[in-house]
Specification:
Order of helices and strands: HEEEEEEEEEEH
Mean pLDDT: 89
CATH class of the domain at 21-165: Mainly Beta
Helix content: under 10%
Shape: elongated
Structural class: mainly beta
Number of helices: 2
Strand content: 15-25%
Largest sheet: 6 strands, antiparallel
Distance between the termini: 40 Å
Length: about 240
């Protein structure tokens, strides 16, 4: 009898495939949106298995604690400022309208007040290109340009931990533990390499391993594997 595909089992939400978010610390976001300028102190540098970059715990003068992405060069007891009047310095958070062109930024808000959604991985950085009537144009790490609202906030600097990918895993055991900490699906096995009962493309009872990978139009969830809607079929000429 065929078994559920791995994507079907993961989507069910069982404990085996649930992300251990209880070990990821608090929500990573900027201070709540405000028109005032607030000064805080970096209390600690925090490690979270759910984030590739280090995190920093900031305590503001009014007693508010915020955990956000640490920038390169930040240190404990450093003073950081959140507001439109803040200095353009690494670690400070400003609205995009107050950040000059050519500045490197990270942890960018998609909408004003959402706490930061873009460029948060270790070593990630974006660059402010120009301020236009429609918004602020930013070059993302993928080299694509995106326009944000001027009231969206971002942190000045480069996300810390840029050397993370320079050290190789060297063996599968270290890779296993790194993926296990975040419950990522690893290793990834192609459907044609599986047994026939484990995947629609599995098995090798023919001269050609696998089967035509055009999924039926009305296939149920989980059956849509392979080439969902190919542009053409047959041999390329």
């Amino acid at each position: 009898m065929p078994k559920n595909l791995i994507q079907q089992k993961r989507g069910k939400g069982s404990l085996s495939y649930r992300s251990p978010s209880h070990r990821f610390g608090a929500d990573i976001k900027h201070r709540a949106l405000s028109t005032d300028t607030h000064t805080g102190t970096v209390m600690d540098i925090v490690h979270s298995p759910g984030h590739s970059s280090p995190l920093c715990k900031i305590r503001y003068a009014d007693g508010t604690d915020v955990i956000t992405v640490a920038t390169d060069g930040i240190f404990v007891k450093q003073q950081v400022v959140n507001g439109a009047d803040a200095e353009v310095k690494s670690g400070n958070t400003l609205p995009l309208s107050a950040i000059p062109d050519g500045t490197l930024i990270c942890n960018i808000e998609g909408l004003p007040g959402d706490g930061g959604k873009f460029v948060r991985s270790s070593g990630g950085t974006a660059k402010v290109i120009s301020h236009t009537v429609k918004g602020v144009v930013i070059t993302m790490p993928s080299k694509k340009q995106r326009t944000f609202l001027p009231s969206c906030r971002a942190t000045i600097g480069v996300a810390a931990g840029s050397g993370r990918r320079e050290k190789p895993f060297l063996k599968a055991g270290r890779k296993h533990h790194a993926m296990k900490a975040r419950n990522k699906m690893w290793p990834t096995v192609s459907g044609a390499a599986m047994n026939a009962l484990s995947h629609p493309l599995g098995g090798s009872r023919s001269s050609r391993k696998g089967r035509p990978t055009i999924a039926p139009k009305n296939a149920p969830p989980g059956r849509k594997v392979g080439m969902i809607r190919p542009r053409h079929t047959g041999r390329n000429k």
